[in-house]
Specification:
10 strands, 9 helices, 34% helix, Kynureninase, PyrdxlP-dep_Trfase_small, Aminotransferase class V-fold PLP-dependent enzyme, 318 residues, 4-stranded antiparallel sheet
């Protein structure tokens, strides 16, 4: 646990390039979450790599074909639609081509079951402040498969990543494994909050969590289908749980941000992504089916009465 998702993404992209030299190509999804692309672009602008964009995972075979890809950076779940990629299949394809995989788990970790070791994932990052419940500004996590644990120095060397942190040695000596990736003094209060969340997660059965999340999100989709039919809102996420991440995305072509603000005003906490998506994110540890009934009842009422059109809901939002 250290730093932000973007910083850890930078660290691991650089680490993958070093571990898989002399290959210098990073494969990136064209429409990935913008910050992920920005990090990769910065590395390329520094002359350390070349980027190769894909529009979907279906294009990965052709991107790998030249045999020069060092790392494939993928989001496990699309931040807009919640579409989930097949981690095992894509890891196998990348490995066959001699490339490493780096997964962003921000929209899946803590909501659906993930088996990094079992699927052969090489590297991963993810935020702590979503489903993992680290709180606002919570630190990010990074994962390095043991086979790459000592593949090279970290891209940013700091005293917290030293093999003997409090020896204050004049020269850097990387700590073993993933312990080499922390850099400077951590945000202690944020780490303490995450420690409390981690104590809960240690007792969570991933299979039970996944089943609970499936029940919640399937129920939410059923409620949208039956309670909001003909009101201008449509499902934008896959219906199959195995292809869906942590949230359920709905499409509202008229004004998704307005509708989202109206829902928040009435006590339904969710988010919007421009131009037309709203995202419900049931949490398997705390959300109940009754919460979903109440949320969809509120949504139906706002749509039927068109109260979301109130100008007060038009203030700027993310």
């Amino acid at each position: 646990m250290a730093d932000s998702t973007s910083v850890n993404l930078y660290k691991l992209l650089r680490y993958a390039l070093a571990a898989n030299a002399p290959r210098r190509v990073i494969v990136v999804e064209r429409d990935v979450f913008p910050s992920n692309r920005y990090v990769a672009e910065g590395i390329a602008r520094a002359g350390l790599a070349t980027l190769r964009f894909i529009d979907s995972a279906d294009q990965l075979p052709s991107a790998l074909a030249p045999g020069d890809v060092a790392v494939v950076a993928l989001s496990h779940v699309d931040y807009r639609s919640s579409e989930r990629l097949d981690m095992a299949a894509l890891n196998a394809r990348a490995r066959q081509a001699g490339a490493l995989t780096l997964w962003d788990l921000s929209h899946s970790a803590g909501a659906v079951a993930i088996d990094l070791r079992g699927t052969g994932a090489d590297l991963a990052v993810g935020c702590g402040y979503k489903y993992l419940c680290a709180g606002p500004g919570g630190p990010s996590f990074l994962y390095v498969h043991p086979r790459h644990a000592d593949a090279g120095w970290p891209a940013v060397c700091g005293w917290m990543g030293h093999a003997a942190t409090f020896d204050f040695a004049p020269e850097f000596r990387p700590a073993p494994g993933a312990d080499r990736f922390p850099v400077g003094t951590p945000p202690v209060l944020a780490q303490a909050a995450f420690a409390a969340a981690a104590a809960i997660w240690r007792d969570v059965d991933p299979a039970a969590m996944d089943a609970r999340h499936r029940s919640l999100t399937d129920t939410l989709i059923d409620l949208i289908d039956t309670q909001c039919e003909g009101l201008g809102i449509e499902l934008a996420s896959p219906r199959a749980h195995a292809r869906r991440g942590g949230h359920v995305a709905l499409q509202f072509a008229n004004a998704a941000p307005l509708l989202a603000q109206a829902l928040v005003h009435h006590g339904v906490v969710l988010s919007a992504r421009k131009p037309d998506a709203i995202r419900f994110a049931p949490h398997p540890l705390v959300t109940t089916h009754a919460h979903l009934w109440a949320a969809v009842a509120c949504l139906r009422d706002l749509l039927q009465r068109e109260t979301w059109r109130d100008p007060r809901f038009g203030k700027p939002s993310v």
